[in-house]
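Q&A log
Question type: sequence-to-structure
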Amino acid sequence: MTSPARSSARRIAALLTGILVLAPVVTGCGGGPTGGEVTSITALDYYTDGTEHTQWGDMLTDCGRTVGVRVEQTSVPGASLIPKVLQQASSRTLPDLLMLDNPDLQQIARTGALTPLDGYGIDSSGFARGILSAGTYQGRVYGLAPNVSTVALIYNKDMLTEAGVAVPRTWDELKAAAAALTRPGRYGMAVDANATFEGTWQFLPFLWSNGGDERHLDTPQAAQALQLWVDLVQSGSMSKSVLNWTQADVHDQFVAGRTAMMINGPWRIPALNQDENLHWGVAPVPVPQSGRTPVTPLGGEVWTVPQNPSRTRQEKAARVLACLNSPSNMLTLAQEHFTVPSRTAVAAQHAEAIPSMSAFTDSVAAARARTDELGVEWPRAATGIYTAVQSALTGEQTPEVALSHAQQTATGR
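Response status: OK
Response body:
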């Protein structure tokens, strides 16, 4: 599980414009059954990391064995996946089983290239609402995620103890703690505020937890959330370099002792565990006021069954998909990748076994899919948000003005 921002909104939108006209043709290919035994199916994902590719390959092989097929796995770089999928859709060569970053699902389902999973009798009970929403288009589930991720506050225990600072739970506590932890060569707080969807992803917990809404970015609630980040930078508690940092950069700053707290995801835990001298903890993202529940975004990939001339191949692929989403396999994948199982009961079991996952698991229960409100229009809003963050943190515009412009970007006016 890596960064949740894998693709360019403009690039996907341009490619989709060309493919949408093909939807009726592609959909028409998936109708009737075909004869002959199916002994193998194909799967496409973006797990190119050697270890990750092998782990998923082993799981696909095991699930294929239970279904009676061999799964031929192909992995391509994240940036290449959507162009490849759209090209395959146009040439009617889609794989039997397709993995998508969850924000991309709605745009691909819109083309008619995917089949709804209710047609295969797949069990989607026990999934958190936000997770099901991430795989839903126009009221029907097209994709399921075996596991998901989100973000939380990761802090250096030794630095907080030395400064006499308690783990912050509210925005006021966060500002006070970040100031107390800041000293020459070290900032109190770090986020990823770069000009990509990753920067938007990190800002969403602050926007959403304050009642902000991507449908209406020009609101006091949204401005207050952005003002918090502006205050942290202007006070010197957070480096202005966050404008260029990725989540990997934020992690590196934390491990090097150059920041005492950071917003990041559970996929960082294996690397954090490698340093025996680094004593760290995890807490929910601070909220505006005590008693509120943090609302964070869902990261992770959904598995789908594309349209295919062979109904038999589709059914085999659907059975493999169901196997990937079984409770036991969810738990195995979560343990391998430090992610959160998508079924609530399995997630609780996982958090009990690995306490460092508890804050992430708790947050997933109330987490939201980025496409939940805007569907296929989400990329425009995401672009407006990270552009507003950049403008406000550089001091070019006030949060109110920057978010007013973001609203114009989101609505296309």
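Response note: The longest strand covers residues 40-45.
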